[in-house]
Write a structure and sequence with these properties.
With 175 residues, this protein is of the alpha+beta class. It contains 7 helices and 6 strands.
Length: 175
Amino acid sequence: MGTISSDAVKAKTGKGWDDWFAILDRAGAAHWPHKETAAWLGSTHGAPPWWRQMITVEYERARGLREVHQKTGGFSASISRTLIAPVGNVYALWADPKQRNKWLGAEPTIRKATEDRSIRITWPDGTNVDVMFYPKGELKMQLTVEHARLADAAAVESQKAFWSAAIARLKALLP
């Protein structure tokens, strides 16, 4: 079940996965919307906010109500890469349309950008892309890309492959 062990869940919430799933089954949660299930876990069982979301998602997956990579607004593909470059250099390759065209191969719409921190994008097909820049020292940084509102699991795999190749092209442009 998920990436968190039942013992870890029990240590934080007082109950393991099987206990939570039995409680949710008895309550009829398999027929509730996600938000209602999470709210019920908080109001009835005092589950902390992060844990009520985690329990709800794992329950939905276990009962076949949600697939891996599926969120309430569709599917989401994420990648993360560590790059040997200052954050500003990598950010510039995203922010400048001329530079971006050299490696991205698409014409996205930038909705919001915070220099050297984040870029929020509307992709040409209307899906959303969030790019985050995390410094790991002067000459090293972590780049994360989440492409959300995808149609299905096949789109997740396709976008993961696309972003891996795009980031490899971006990396080749770094000094």
